[in-house]
Specification:
The chain is an alpha/beta fold. It has a single domain, classed as 3-Layer(aba) Sandwich (UDP-N-acetylmuramoyl-L-alanine:D-glutamate ligase), CATH 3.40.1190.20. Helices cover about 30% and strands about 20% of the residues. The protein has 10 helices and 17 strands. The strands form 4 sheets. A 9-stranded mixed beta sheet has the order 6-5-2-10-11-12-13-14-15, with helices on both faces. A 4-stranded mixed beta sheet has the order 4-3-8-9. Strands 1-7 form a two-stranded antiparallel ribbon. It is globular. This is Sugar kinase. Pfam families: PfkB (PF00294). Keywords: Kinase, Transferase.
Amino acid sequence: MLNLRRGISTHQPSVISLGQVWVDIMMNVDEVPPQGGFAVADHPKPSIGGSYRVLQAASRMGAPTEHAGILGNGLWANFIRQSFQDNGINHIGPDRLDEDSGFRVVLASGQPKKTFIASYGAEAHGDADTFDMLEPQNKDVVHISGNTLMDHTAAGVDGFLLRAGTDPAKRDYTLVINPTNTLRLVNDHMLEDLVLARPVWSCNRQEATTLAERLGAPIDDSKVTIGGGLDDFMRQLCEGLGSTLRAPLVVRVGSLGAWVREPGGETMHIEGYPTKAVHTRSAGGCHTGVMCAMLAEGRGLAESVKIANAATSIAIQRSLNGVPQCPEYDEAMALAG
């Protein structure tokens, strides 16, 4: 592997992602065929997936953005590299010359859940040394995604976490984990090291509930099951999970905004901006990317989440091949007030 080192110059706080990036090929079919069946898809729509959407959103907020994951050599990798260039994203991670980056076929048939078929590539074939060359600088925000925690590259993430230590106060950068819906597949050792690193956790409600169940967090949902509402449940979830993690926690709930809890503090509800969605893919990457950019800008967590809520509400009104499109900084700030 070849490694590209970060240049030495006057430093501007950056958003750096260790996450994997691949190509998504969206196919709309009337019905997902059974084994041995046949289906006709309309025009396939390739787009960049994985942590690219986090970096793209952060870049649109004006933050310097860097991808520290692995890129391959071939058709898909070239597509990714061109998209990085078009969006001002700098690839600082390893390059594999012996294989292409991977891709996913996404079958959508009008049902709530989509069918995914993955072909893993260079992004998944890292090792314990993958991120050894990464040295975050003062005020950087380092993003880790759940899609990097289930294959060979997870060993490199684990090594980075061990170097990061267990005391956020001793780091001069901010660590953010976006666990994604694959959290249930992450092994216990990897999850333990993630928890010990005490990053900022940015989850949707399903991810937060899965994490709480795995960690045995004390959550009493009786208020919800006996006439209570969402606000009661979210406060129970955030307080129980947040106290178990001993780390900042953000739980997104779509148009209703997000709940935020910092260690030792009260759970706050940051209102959303309800709008009509036209997308078919999650806008979680947009929210996480904007939040990371605002943290790198020096804003507090609650304010960063408020701006991310505004940006996401705009993004879900703008679909490109089913993918929400994050707005530029000025537009998001205008809505956030």
